Amino acid sequence: MAIADIVTRQTPNDRADGSATVPRYGERPRITGPSMAELEAWVAEIAELTQPARIHWVDGSRAENDALLREQVDEGKLIKLNPEWRPGSYLARSHPSDVARTEARTFIASEREEDAGPTNNWVAPAEIRATITPLFRGSMRGRTMYVVPFSMGPVGGPLSHIGVQITDSAYAVTSIGIMTRVGTEVLEQIAAGKPWVKTVHSVGAPLAAGEKDVAWPCNDEKYIVHFPETLEVWSFGSGYGGNAILAKKCFALRIASVIGRDEGWLAEHMLLIRVIDPKGKAYHLAAAFPSACGKTNLAMLRPTIPGWRVETLGDDIAWIRPGEDGRLHAINPEAGFFGVAPGTGQSTNVAAVETLWGNTIFTNVALRPDGDVWWEGLTDEVPAELIDWEGNAWTPASGRPAAHPNSRFTVAAAQCPQIAPDWEAAEGVPLDAILFGGRRATNVPLVLEATDWTHGVFLGSNISSERTAAAEGTVGELRRDPFAMLPFCGYNMADYFAHWLDVGRKLRFDRAPRIFQVNWFRKGADGRFLWPGFGDNSRVIEWIIRRIDGSVPAVDSPIGRLPRTEDLNLDGIHVPQEDLDELFAVDPELWLHEADLTEEFYQTFGGKVPAALYSELAALRYRLKLAQR
Q1: Domain that holds residue 200
Q2: Rounded mean pLDDT, 352-364
Q3: Under DSSP, is residue 25 helix (H, G, I), strand (E, B) or coil?
Q4: End-to-end CA distance of the chain
Q5: Which of 136, 171, 219, 607 reaches 20 to 30 Å from 417, CA-CA?
Q6: Which residues are catalytically annotated?
Q7: What one-character-per-residue DSSP string does 316-334 give?
Q8: How much is the pTM?
């Protein structure tokens, strides 16, 4: 069944003077109301600008999704995988120039430059509209313009928000259908007057009459522009997930962080899990890690300690609001996982592998001769032959990765075998702890506890990690990434730090989540990882929970509270005492250098960093100098 078979008829839309505008295919949703009229007027405005060949209002049905997938296969844009191994699954291969978030081309178009801050690319709204409007003019010629109403969080939920994406990419539509809640229920919310975010996306590859399309249309010129005052996102030129699924990072973090600032809540780059101890008591943890630093592994953790369980609530984004009970409550606003494939395997994240049994869109992984997929880290044994992510023959002797380092899987969260039964609860879950982490080979201990909320915000503001393939830049370069939000905060990060402090001040001191910093990646002098990681990270989580319960003491150090090594549950594994000592070693001289780097970072904000964080920095230096004596 083609899309033309789903939409029922062509309805020309004529101007009063008799000249025809863009033809519309299919009936409009039979939903009325002033806000619905506003939506329809906006759709007509974008159609007038982009000049698509047809317009399709997406209803989110299974039949519609199946037809979209089949059309992409017929057009050579998707490869249908062997249903014996991956039922309902597909492989997409992007253009080699379109494989990651284009951070250098991502802009915050706030009215004032200081509202964007030094960590964002700022541009004046009028200036960027004058730049991108000509790019969008006629950009959808020969293509279908899809109108996709979506909800972040359960439709109608108290912590949820809604939006509409206009796009000319069927790949984006099918991905949005996995990552969000799409359908006419969202239009009913709009018709009822609920605020909504406008997002527009074009791959920037118009088709002339009779021109054959390419497998991955995109444009060398790329822009991803956020307008925080008007709650809009405009993305041009890229078909890659992070740039094309605008509900994800663009809305759920950059725009939502602005909404959260104004409404008193937090939109965070955080996983969300429920940890259940052997007695059945549940604890809820949120954790912020930069992309490709083990976040999905922790989100689907399978503890190696007998009797402990983890239920997955979310793997990437958490929206966190203060509740009337004095606690913070969090939801995962997404409906799916958009995970990094390389490094995800039976030995590292068996739950993720089991989630990918079918109904998955893979992007830029390798194709096996039997019609299944493979990537580095999926199995210990490397296949003898593959087709690599660019469509070329590959063997282990090829000397290049078979899958792109930032290759992805897009899959419904409901397929995760350890998804929490109530993961879509509209009211969210109460948080017991917040974790910050990055990829650091030196200095940062395996785990430390903040002394209070302000100290925790200080720790979060100083997270740094080695750059990964998920973002542009040199892999391995040390990248400062406060709260794992550097690429995703939609406003000045100094104001963002202040917002975190404000949220904490409104919580009951005895009900605020405890804050911890973790680092699974510390190495010894020989370059070897000192901690086994993966499932054994549950041993660190157990210590954190025992701290929450008050059942174990901690050791004060200049940088925070550390475990006594004898309080870590190491039953069943062997970590030499010298490795444990190194995992928690605090070198005052090296940390004083870290403090200098922190001050340099704070100074880039031109005096806007809250005084409370400078006080924490001064106190850290004082404690480090005492430790040197």
Answers
A1: 3-60+102-263
A2: 98
A3: strand
A4: 77
A5: 171
A6: 293
A7: S-EEEEE-TTSSEEEE---
A8: 0.93
